[in-house]
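Good morning,

Attaching, inline, the backbone tokens for the sequence recovery test we're adding to the shared suite. The designed sequence is right after.
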């Protein structure tokens, strides 16, 4: 029992790996009850380590070299793989990351863990020597390295609580860290005969310093890439906002023309009604005027100001182009999203819907339907419209029908990017001349108040 407790609490690979996992987990957007899940994950990992630690003595011989036997190699694989698997699952359970982002987080945590290992090894030659002083010294190094990594790297890597690391980036980062922490480390042990001579220990310490600097460089490179991506995103956002301002100006001019035309028509209709003596004709004329002024009742009231703005704007476009407009939206569901993301998502989606509807020759089929509702704890967004012609799908996205493909087709990609940024998904279906865009985004915190529904 005492031997089990010894392996349970000593500052070994599993323990250090879980500490660094917690360090890189803190800046992320975490799941509900993440604290309990993290505690349970660390507890289970430590209990498993207590058993796996007993196998550690079977991996190396007394000289510290790796004996080439099937049993020792299997023990090494299990001993080294269990902490990595525990870290990967912890990211999934506590932050709800995708497997790609979880792999990326695990790689960063492993780089930080290996940095603490290198510091300890460079200082006194062994990661843990078994005495009380070494016990607390190693734990102190792990905690100090964890704090430094948190402020220098961990809190700078996420964007909107997620890493958004592509598959290629996650695999490349994990491969580099594994190569440095495993291949170079054990190659240095075998080549220099670690533990056999003072010269070998010195050379091995130098190798550990090299490993330390390599892991440090990898984490620094991740933060620099993230900063560069953020700068590019800011430039693109500014460019898009300028373009939207120009479009908004042109749209405002069109709205003024629409209103002036409606006022001109109403003036003549009222003048004509004054000359009518037949009650039925007067009622018919009043109904026509009532339908004409419905455009001024197009202001949407969904409970979200940004959504109200974009829906009102696009409903006026539909009125101008004689497109039937239907909207049922619970705007309060989207309060967790940034105003820019809401405007961009619905602006792009509705622009595409209006443009697609304008291609329909049958005026009775010109329609746009917008739905925003709560579906099993997620915001379900659906925009539906008819279209004429054929669409070509590439990688789940419709290929733009415009001549300049390089300057168009980014609207749908932007919608998918926003959905994925909040941990959601986007789906497009085109059947029987109906274009259906569906977006499902998990709601981090359920609104306690009832969400108002706007029905046009």
């Amino acid at each position: 029992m005492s031997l089990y407790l010894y392996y349970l609490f000593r500052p070994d690979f599993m323990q250090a790996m879980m500490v660094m996992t917690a360090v890189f987990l803190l800046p992320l957007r975490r799941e509900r009850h993440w604290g309990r899940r993290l505690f349970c994950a660390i507890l289970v990992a430590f209990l498993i380590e207590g058993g796996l630690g007993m196998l550690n003595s079977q991996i190396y011989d007394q000289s510290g070299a790796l004996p080439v036997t099937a049993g020792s190699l299997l023990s090494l694989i299990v001993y080294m793989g269990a902490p990595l698997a525990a870290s990967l699952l912890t990211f999934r359970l506590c932050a709800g990351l995708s497997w790609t982002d979880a792999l990326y987080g695990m790689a960063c945590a492993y780089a930080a863990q290996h940095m603490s290992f290198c510091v300890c090894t460079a200082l006194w030659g062994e990661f843990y020597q078994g005495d009380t002083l070494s016990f607390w010294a190693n734990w102190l190094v792990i905690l100090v390295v964890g704090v430094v990594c948190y402020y220098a790297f961990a809190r700078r890597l996420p964007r909107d609580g997620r890493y958004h690391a592509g598959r290629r980036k996650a695999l490349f980062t994990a491969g580099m860290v594994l190569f440095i922490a495993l291949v170079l480390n054990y190659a240095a042990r075998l080549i220099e005969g670690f533990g056999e001579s003072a010269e070998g220990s010195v050379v091995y310490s130098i190798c550990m310093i090299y490993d330390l600097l390599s892991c440090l460089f990898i984490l620094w490179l991740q933060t620099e890439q993230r900063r560069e991506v953020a700068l590019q995103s800011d430039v693109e956002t500014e460019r898009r906002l300028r373009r939207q301002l120009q479009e908004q100006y042109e749209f405002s001019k069109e709205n003024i023309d629409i209103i002036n035309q409606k006022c001109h028509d109403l003036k003549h209709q009222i003048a004509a009604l004054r000359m009518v003596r037949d009650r039925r004709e007067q009622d018919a004329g009043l109904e026509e005027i009532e339908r004409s002024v419905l455009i001024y009742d197009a202001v949407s009231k969904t409970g979200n100001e940004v959504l109200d703005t974009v829906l009102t704007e696009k409903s006026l476009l539909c009125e101008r182009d004689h497109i039937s407009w239907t909207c049922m939206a619970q705007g309060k569901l989207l309060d967790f999203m940034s105003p820019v993301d809401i405007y961009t998502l619905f602006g792009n989606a509705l622009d595409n819907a209006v443009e697609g509807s304008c291609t329909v020759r049958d005026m009775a089929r010109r329609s746009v339907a917008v739905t925003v509702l709560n579906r099993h704890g997620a915001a379900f967004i659906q925009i539906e419209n008819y279209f004429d012609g054929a669409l070509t799908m590439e990688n789940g996205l419709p290929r733009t029908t415009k001549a300049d493909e390089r300057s168009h087709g980014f609207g749908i990609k932007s919608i998918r990017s926003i959905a994925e940024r909040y941990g959601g998904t986007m789906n497009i279906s085109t059947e029987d001349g109906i274009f259906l865009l569906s977006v499902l985004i998990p709601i981090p915190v359920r609104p306690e108040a009832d969400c108002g529904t706007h029905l046009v």
